[in-house]
Amino acid sequence: MKYLLNTFKIILSLMLSVHLTALYGQSYNHLNARHPPDWFTEGCTYQLMPRCFSAEGTLKGAERELERLCELGVKVVYFTPLTVADTDMDRTMWSPRQIKSGFNDPRNMYRAYDYFHVDSEYGTDQDLKDFIAHAHRLGMKVFLDLVFAHCGPTAPILTRHPEYFKRTENNEIKLTGWHFPEFDFSYCGTRAYFRSVMTYYVADFDVDGFRCDVADLIPIDFWEEVRGELDRLDKDLVIMAEGRAHYNTRYAFDGNYCWNTLFLSVLKVLHGDRKVLEEEGGADFIRKTMLGYYGQCPKGTLIWNMTENHDTSTDDFENRQEKVYGNDNCELSLAFCFALEGVPLLFSGQEVAYDKRVSMFGHEGVWIDWEECMKQPAAQKRTELIKKWNQMRRDYSSLAHGETVWVENDNPSKVCSFIRHDGRSKDILFVANCSDSEVKVRLENGKRFTLAPWGYYFGE
After folding, report:
1. Vertex 322, ends 317 and 327: CA angle to 5°?
2. Is residue 73 part of a domain?
3. Is 421 exposed, middle or buried (0-12, 13-18, 19+ CB in 10 A)?
4. Residue 307 in contact with residue 329, Cβ under 8 Å?
5. Are residues 311 and 456 in the same domain?
6. Cβ distance 445 to 455 under 8 Å?
């Protein structure tokens, strides 16, 4: 009995320690992360935004491109939200970004009206089921984007269940910073409702995973509860958090959609952020950022590595990265996504170096003409590179499962260098010139490289 009591005290102490680290942001690196299925870790994810993906902007239009994406090496197609969007025209309830976009369209895909059906803009529930079935026949998986923190201002749930929402001091429904009604997850009914949404899409549509919007704004214990329920339905399901909380990947999530870690560190360097170049060590800022983040997360934590997404591409308007920084600069940033630990995520059009405006707030005039795109040499080159990099991830387990070993070099302000190592396949070396001038560099192992502006070495 004394032994059991002491054991209980030790366990309680450890639980308290973990709770405190969550509260104060200390490291979780002494714990292990969830282990996602190999099909996810070894694959490449593609974020598909229907509004920009075809002339029709529909699921049927997107389905026509599935074979092409499969040939590209894409394993997961992840949709931006497909649920019925609120059509309220009161612009005081629109997000500032939606107004700024210039589209007079009330349907913001992140402002839901009905969580249980596909918006007619994209097609029908059956169209989604058909898309998923087609993807599965090709050996691909399909993820949906879930927006649980808020809904649209005229969503029926507001009148059916007003108790599901946070309240102000005046007992009015509280709005988020985007002007959307905010759900209250301290209420058990709210939790039960959203658990039913997730189980519905797994059971009735056969989806393979979810990306959970602004997951860090929702209590982690909700995600842990629903994770347990979903695991009983499908042990192979993948759930990604839009967030960077260090504890996310312990029990609830398979990884973080953490665009403000890799995304910002790489692009701040490559896009010439003066503070980073002059005060943070230039290219070495990438190493420091990655080590800092992974050093606080549970061991084995995955993130989606990306350089663009629906948010950034929308906010760029006409000044897309490919247009402003050029194909070579963008190619290098994408190479980082495939070389670093994590799972590469491509945004619609990156595989053809697309440089024209797209938007999550409208469709007219901002969709990709794939046939026209593929006539361009830059598109053909980028497509072949993506195919090559995806094949490398299949051929070398060190890229999909290995650790990142940072390699010292004699020009750290301009050159980033590391090895991916797992002890099973051959090591893969990545050396990147993060500057607009030619550099000569010597690694600590004696290897020397002469790299063109934005040039890199990615191989054995």
Report:
1. 175
2. yes
3. middle
4. no
5. no
6. no
Residue 6: is its pLDDT beyond 70?
no
Q: Tell me how far apart the alpha carbons of residues 117 and 83 are, in angstroms, rounded to a whole number.
A: 6
Between CA 123 and CA 110 the distance in angstroms is 17
Which residues does 210 contact at the CB level (< 8 Å), separation at least 6? Answer: 143, 144, 145, 146, 198, 201, 237, 238, 239, 240
Q: Is the pTM of this model over 0.85?
A: yes
289-292 LR contacts (CB < 8 Å, sep 24+): 289/261, 289/262, 289/264, 289/265, 290/261, 290/262, 290/265, 290/340, 290/404, 291/406
What residues form DSSP beta bridges with 441?
A: 449
Q: What CATH number has the domain bearing residue 442?
A: 2.60.40.1180
Encoding tokens for residue 85? Answer: 């969007």
Token match 């598109």: residue? 379
How many domains is the chain partitioned into structurally? 2
Residue 161, domain extent: 25-395
Task: Give CB contacts under 8 A, 24+ apart, made by 189-192.
Answer: 189/161, 189/163, 189/164, 190/161, 190/164, 191/222, 191/225, 191/226
Q: Which amino acid is at 431?
A: V
Give the pLDDT confidence of 194-235 residue by residue, as tens digits.
Answer: 999 999 999 999 999 999 999 999 999 999 999 999 999 888
Same domain for 384 and 458? Answer: no
Report the C-alpha gap between 35 and 38 in whole angstroms.
Answer: 9
Tokens of 34: 């969830």
398-452: pLDDT as tens digits: 999 999 999 999 999 999 999 999 999 999 999 999 999 999 999 999 999 999 9
Residue with tokens 């090496």: 73
Nearest residue to 256 (alpha-carbon basis) of 302, 290, 201 = 302
